[in-house]
Amino acid sequence: MCRSIKTLFNFDPPATELEIRDASLQFVRKLSGFSVPSQANEAAFERAVEQVAASARELITSLRTTAAPKNREVEAAKARERAAARFGQTG
Fold it and tell me: By mean pLDDT, which of 16-30, 37-51, 77-91 is the weakest?
């Protein structure tokens, strides 16, 4: 759906409030088609971001797994490797 939205569940340390809000913002941007809403739509946009963030927070805290928590640095390195393979090396 939106490549900017990252998996937030099962990481050590857990997802921060900022990460949850950023993912929620990207989701609402995608749904609305606005990267920045007009003044007329700003309140509805912000309300939607807060509601999505609350739902995401509830989901993340409710989920259970027996898998070991993922390491952010390892996952970021894997993502960089996938990007390099897909798009080629730059620089």
Answer: 77-91
- Distance (Å, rounded) from C-alpha 23 to C-alpha 6? 7
Q: What is the DSSP letter of 40?
A: T
Nearest to 49 by CA among 35, 69, 29, 68: 29
Angle CA 44–31–10, to nearest 5: 100
Q: Which residues pair with 71 in a beta bridge?
A: 12
- Residue 69 near residue 11, CB atoms below 8 Å: yes
Average pLDDT over residues 56-62: 97
pTM of the entire predicted model = 0.81
Q: Are 27 and 52 in contact (CB under 8 A)?
A: yes
- Cβ neighbors of 53 (< 8 A, separation 6 or more) are 20, 21, 24
Task: Give the C-alpha separation, 11 to 31, whole Å.
Answer: 26
